[in-house]
Amino acid sequence: KLENRNMETKNKEEKILKIIEKEFAVSLAQKESELSLIDQRILEVRKSLNLVRSGAVINYYTPTQNKQSISTDHLVSFHPAVRKQFHGKQPVSQSSSSEGPAAKPLPEKIPHYVPPIKKESPFEVCDPRGSQHKYKQRIIIGNVSKWIPPDQREDASSHKWMIYVRGDKDQPDISHVVEKVRFELHPSYHPHHIIEITETPFQLTRRGWGEFGVSVCLFWRNERDKMVAVVHNLKLDKTHTGLQTLGAETAVDVWLHKVSEAQEPVEQMSSLFENTESEGHVIKHIEENK
Q: What whole-number distance in Å separates Cα of residue 150 and Cα of residue 93?
């Protein structure tokens, strides 16, 4: 009896599995047919969209587009997507002899040199107001340095440097225009961080281990010229050869008053007055010989 029951259950299971497989096969076939139908409809929609797009383009260009021929080849319009690939201006249309009288030939353009646009520099000094009474003086601020070997150092200073103020190579001595120079060093040199040099050569020698900006104030002999402050970035030797090397130089163009023209008005005004014991300075009376 048990064997018969087992056989019956196995038969039932096999029948159920066959029914399920059959139903799955039917449903899969239906889905595949639906997918193929969807693909076919998508292709039909794409074809119709291409037809609509071509018709729209033809309708857009038909009213304005000229028929292409040998004589009107340059008047044919291009699609905006294609027109982006063309660069430059469109050539001037040449009128044919049948349309009207011949146009006058355009004058031939002769190429010539066009200088480049000069870039504005913040370091360039423009001509000031009243420049006819002034002249330009070139001032150069620089420094040299020398590396100190470790066995020769007295403290933590690794370099010995010197900062100087001079003129250009044609006239390095500027003592005739500069009265004194004030050097303002790093605060670590306090209380000796502000030094004034009143005699030529205008230079200062110190020892140190780092680079910093030195504020250099220039005072002029002419009282009409105002003090000028320049910041020079100190550059130390990085070759460690023990030889004196040039660090950096800062060039400045300064407009100064001409001494001769500044004194002439004073002399002319003093010649118009005379000193008397009773009334002091009075205007001179000049008698003209008639």
A: 83
